[in-house]
Specification:
Layout lengths: L1 E6 L1 H9 L12 E10 L2 E12 L3 E2 L4 E4 L8 E8 L14 E7 L5
Antiparallel strand pairs: 1-5, 1-7, 2-3, 2-6, 3-4
Length: 108
């Protein structure tokens, strides 16, 4: 049904100040969490949540992410996407986020 998410502290630090692998976020940079729902082995819908965009927007508190559009699923898989690509096509920003309070709805 829904869950709460936010940026992890190491991810936020690198977006704000950069590190040896990544630069701080500029106006064209973004970071997304992507979730794909599965029902058995069949892949279902994928939805994204933007955790950061540009130098001015970064999620820094718990936000509710509505997952109801995934429909009935038995499994979810997370991955992250960004536009800072480094050596060997690796992402530069640490790919961590925090989640809590996952709400699951069961059919009666």
């Amino acid at each position: 049904d829904h869950m709460y998410i936010t940026n992890a502290s190491v991810t936020m630090y690198c977006m704000l100040y950069g590190n040896g692998f990544s630069k701080s976020f500029g106006k064209d940079d973004y970071l997304d969490v992507v979730i794909t729902g599965y029902n058995g082995v069949e892949k279902g819908k994928t939805i994204k949540y933007r955790l950061a965009e540009g130098s001015d927007f970064k999620v820094n508190e718990w936000v509710k992410w509505d997952l109801s559009s995934l429909g009935a699923v038995t499994k979810v898989v997370f991955h992250m996407e960004e536009n800072q690509i480094g050596y060997e096509s690796w992402y530069c920003t640490p790919m961590y986020f925090a989640y809590d309070d996952v709400a699951v709805r069961f059919e009666e």
